[in-house]
Structure to design on (128 residues):
């Protein structure tokens, strides 16, 4: 079961992922900044179900309900953009960690190759 995961990880172009991580983080921050700006509210015209004119109290209740819903939606949108920005930052940190691990792995493989070469030289000198 581990073989498909390993083959999937080998297929991923990690160099491209690492090179694009800063731009993803910047786009997430831009998205968050853009959502913070005040956007002109669009009119929320709701057609009357009945032909009669609603009373002023009913209109006020509808308006208060709409304001509460709008505030809840804005809060949720703000939380979602913050979550996206946090995920982008975590992705950038993960890519940085993977890059460090790849470099460490290269050093370990190089050290292992040198150890085998040294062992081979010792073994060869023992047979002479």
């Amino acid at each position: 079961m581990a073989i498909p995961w390993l083959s999937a990880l080998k297929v991923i172009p990690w160099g491209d992922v690492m090179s694009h991580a800063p731009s993803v983080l910047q786009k997430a921050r831009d998205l968050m900044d853009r959502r913070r700006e005040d956007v002109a509210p669009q009119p929320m015209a709701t057609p009357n179900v009945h032909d009669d004119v609603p009373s002023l109290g009913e209109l006020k209740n509808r308006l208060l309900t709409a304001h509460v819903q709008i505030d809840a939606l804005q809060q949720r949108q703000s939380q979602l953009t913050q979550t996206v920005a946090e995920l982008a930052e975590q992705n950038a940190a993960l890519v940085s960690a993977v890059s460090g691990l790849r470099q460490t792995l290269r050093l370990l493989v190089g050290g292992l190759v040198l150890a085998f070469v040294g062992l081979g030289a010792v073994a060869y000198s023992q047979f002479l």
Q: What stands out?
A: The chain is about 80% helix and 0% strand. The helical segments are 2-11, 14-36, 56-127.
